[in-house]
Each structure stands twice: as C-alpha cells, then as structure tokens.
Amino acid sequence: MSYIKRALITGSTSGIGLAIARQLAAEGVDIVLHGLSSEDEGQVLVQAFLDEFSVGVSYFQADISDPNQITDLFDRVKKEVGFISILVNNAGIQHTSPIETFPVEQWDKIIAVNLSSAFHTTQQVLPFMVEQGWGRIINIASVHGLVASVNKAAYCAAKHGLIGLTKVTALELAAKQVTVNAICPGWTDTPLLVQQFKAFSQKNNTSYEEAKQGLIKEKAPYPDFVAPDDIGRLVVFLCSDAAKAITGTSLPIDGGWTAH
Ligand code: NAD
Question: Which protein residue's CA is at the shortest distance from atom 23 of ligand 1?
Fold first, then answer.
C-alpha cells in the first residue's frame, strides 16, 4: 500500500526544524516549510531545497500564536499543495525569568506557540491521516517536558503539556495507523539558545564559547550539543514502518541529561 508522504514542519526556517525538513527531504518526503520569514525569504529556502533534493517543496508564512492564522495556513496548504500526512510541531520560543517577575505576555505567547499551536495543527491534519489510514505526528518537546529548570516556568509548563497532548492523541489514534510521539532534545546549538549563552557569559564573566561549554556541563554528561541532524534522523525513523508500534512515547535525545 502506498500512502501520500508529505510533511509540514512548523518553524522550519532555522535550527532543528530546518534539519528535520532536510532529513525528511533526503528520504524522498515532500516538504512544506513554514515560519515567520517573508514569502520572498521562504522562496530562497525552497530553491535551496529544490537544488539539493528531488522532492516537492513549498513555503508558507504564518504566526502560529494565532489560531486563525493556523486555520488559514492549512486551508492554503490543502488548496495549493495537498494533504499533510506527517506533521512535525517544532516551532518554539523561550523566555527565562524568575516566576515572580515572569512577564504575563511572555507566558501567554510561550503557551500559545509551544503548546496550543500543536492542538490546533493536530486538529487540522487528523481527518486526512485517519482517512488514508497512515499518519505521523511528531511533537518537538524538550528535556523540559520531562524535568524542570529554574526560570523556565512557561517553557516547562508548555513542554510538559505538549507531552500530555502527545499521549492523549496517541491513545485516540492508536487503532487508526496514526502514531503520535514527542522528541525531547537537550542542549542543541540553535538561535533559541543565544539569549541563554549571553546571560551565562555575563553572569560568569566568560567568553561566548566558554558559556556554551558551561551550559552543557551544567546539565548533560555527554560533553557536546545534540546535533540537529540527529534529531532529524530520529524523526525519519519515527516515520518508518519499523516505528509503527511506537506511539505515545517521549523520546529523550539529551546526552544523558534526564538520566540524573
Ligand atoms: P529556532 O529559534 O532555530 O527555531 C524556532 C522556530 O520557530 C523558528 O523557525 C521560528 O521562526 C519559529 N517560530 C517561533 N515563533 C513562531 C510563531 N509565532 N509562528 C511561527 N513560527 C514561529 O530554535 P530551535 O532550537 O531549532 O527550536 C525548535 C524546537 O526545538 C522548539 O520547539 C524548541 O523548544 C525545541 N527545543 C530546542 C532545544 C535547544 O536546545 N535548542 C532543546 C529542546 C527543545
């Protein structure tokens, strides 16, 4: 039986999302890129994919903190490209602050982008996945979906919530050949961490590079960052037939962080 294999990866113009899109494209999966970049910037990325991979590639801009923009995004994708059978909820933001002074607007934004958007996108893709009898939903959570760190109230709440959403969706879809899993990366060197590198460097009076190593040492026994491409390879595996019975899980890829 051959199924439509077309992936939409939210927040795929940089970092982990871009690496996931590249790994899936290398496996022959059609790719829908998404992000906040302008349509013109998106087209540059589309061309780079088309030059490298023999798959269909498109780009759509939408701010997924807004449920209406998510509905509009999926309407446009359905009309201009087709149905989605692999959804990777990857877009995410961070803000660090003690809870007493945590800005309410940052709390609301992080919950909207890192958690609620995955509920809305999941609602959009399920009817087709169920109809075709094959689908994959992969939520990029974090080690912070499994354990906590100080000053990350909204991020930890959202990522723990995303793992809860993953489990419920997996249970509801288990008999329909649609698997739903969360991936929980540890430190991965992407634009998301820039503010934390700067803060560590200031607080400890170190260089930017020393700050990177310092952050790793604080949490993970493995002495390096997680490679974005390795997260992409894990997504590829979860999309394979060998992973058909893996559902409802939260898979750490964290250099041993959560083994403590
Ligand atoms: P990144 O900043 O490179 O990527 C985040 C992406 O989300 C960007 O493309 C950004 O444009 C997009 N995005 C943010 N807000 C958006 C919005 N309102 N609407 C649409 N798109 C939006 O960072 P990353 O590290 O690649 O993050 C990807 C995911 O991995 C996030 O969910 C993050 O929480 C998770 N994660 C990252 C790390 C890490 O150490 N970098 C660790 C664990 C989990």
Answer: 192
